[in-house]
Design brief:
The chain folds into two domains: 280 residues, Butyryl-CoA Dehydrogenase, subunit A, domain 2; 176 residues, Up-down Bundle (Butyryl-CoA Dehydrogenase, subunit A, domain 3), CATH 1.20.140. The chain is 48% helix and 12% strand. The chain is built from 18 helices and 14 strands. Helix 10 runs antiparallel to helix 11, helix 10 runs parallel beside helix 12 and helix 15 runs parallel beside helix 16. The longest helix has 30 residues. The chain is globular. The protein binds flavin-adenine dinucleotide. Flavin-adenine dinucleotide (FAD) binds next to strand 5 and helix 16. The site of flavin-adenine dinucleotide has 21 residues, from strand 5 and helix 16.
Amino acid sequence: MGVRGGDSYISGLKSHPKNVWVVGRKVVDVAGDPVFRRPVSAMAMLYDLQVDGELRPRMTYRDEDGAEAGLSFIIPRSRDDLVRRRDSMRVWADATFGLMGRSPDFLNTVLASWADAPEFFAEVGARFADNVQRYYRFCRDNDLFLTHTLVNPPVDRSKSASQQADEYAYLGIVKETGDGLIVRGAKMLATHGPTADELLVYPLPFSVRPGEEKYALAFAIPTDAPGLRFICREPFDLGDQSEWDHPLGSRFEEPDAVAVFDDVLIPWERVFLHGNVNLANTMFARTRVQCHTGHQTAVRGLAKCEFMTALAVALSRSVKTDGFMHVQEQLGECIGYLQLIEGAIVLSEQKAEVTKRGTYLPALEPLQALRYHIPRFYERMVRLTQVMGAGGLLANPTKADLDSEIGDDIRRYYRGADRDAEAKIHLSKLAWDATGTQFGQRQLQYERYYAGDPVRTGASIYTMSDQASLLALVERALGLSSDGAGRSDAKSWRPPS
Ligand SMILES: Cc1cc2nc3c(=O)[nH]c(=O)nc-3n(C[C@H](O)[C@H](O)[C@H](O)COP(=O)(O)OP(=O)(O)OC[C@H]3O[C@@H](n4cnc5c(N)ncnc54)[C@H](O)[C@@H]3O)c2cc1C
């Protein structure tokens, strides 16, 4: 099929009726439903950019067979491939101001990582390595939109999967059949589960305990698989939010859902791993998936942080507080974060590891640092934007009020230092939608948790680090000696080359 545009994505959704539940209703045609129409349109917009005549060369590449494919499916074989991939990811990220975390490029990098790790899947069994390769090509060649769901629902975090009161509180294997695995239970969160074509399920690092083989599994299924149901959180926009009053929430809301598997058959050709606790626990590390996903999430995070910084600048200018030095300091703090993020992305490319297969893996250390710090930078930016906007963020009437008989009052009392009342209200609404509305608060919660538990991410930065070279610094300082004149003896020390 090759790279898709938006219409192709929408017609694909329409030809696969789903089992999606939202505010007490079952939705089959998500593309035609008011709740999902806008998220689907936003995704279609991204696919349209991919086939846009001018952007197409930036968004696509030629695969090993010479066919055109979306650039995020690439297995990078040079530093230039990494830079090209970053550029295409940035186009998609900028199109939504970084507000759609689950744009298709995120999961495409997961598949590329797996396809590049056949030795790992061969340890599960030769056919599983073939399954992964075939599935990667199937998704790439049809340009499918994938999402994933990895996490067990928070029932009792002090207990393991088999210790939960309900044996299938967490997704597990019920039985193996000649056709495949029968699985039962729930996983969260599947952002875009209802609006994606395919769903990946695979284990978080060290999430499966020894003896709990039935919870060790990785597979992919279509989102319309029989027995699969998505239960959505309450939408913020039922499809009727004013685009003027909610400039972001009315356009870029991503549906979040719990995926419930009611004895779903996973055909053997869609199974990538099962029953092996050790492989399940080490899948992330050994397929090097975080190097590629971290590249995408950092690029998207940069776009989002830039947008938040831009909002802070525009807000302060609209009431001319940007001449005060403490406000300048706050804006400078945000702009400084952007430099740090961009620097770490480039560093990950410069320090890319070349594997024995000739793949360029962005260095994990700067990307893990960003996984940990972008949520903190972002949270700080949200806070500073709210502090700069202050009460003005909550003083705003609606477009309907502007257009009513009190419109002249509003035009008189709501103007800003650099713009008229209508423009100032619109800007304030944009800032509040980004930071304070349900949409804005989800954006914050998303950054905190989309990459898993931040406590464990932060701890892993320490446990993965080269502590020996750090400690050598301390030893060297403790061992300093001086000559008779009090000058430090540097003879035995040479700076790192
Ligand atoms: C808006 C949003 C969208 C998301 N979209 C997706 C998606 O599309 N796909 C996907 O797979 N995931 C997604 N996630 C991430 C996922 O759902 C989880 O939120 C994330 O992995 C963190 O897990 P948790 O929420 O269960 O928190 P927990 O892991 O339960 O952690 C909560 C707190 O309890 C502590 N804690 C819990 N267990 C332990 C333990 N054993 N030892 C020590 N401390 C512990 C943690 O330190 C933490 O502070 C999304 C999250 C959000 C918020």
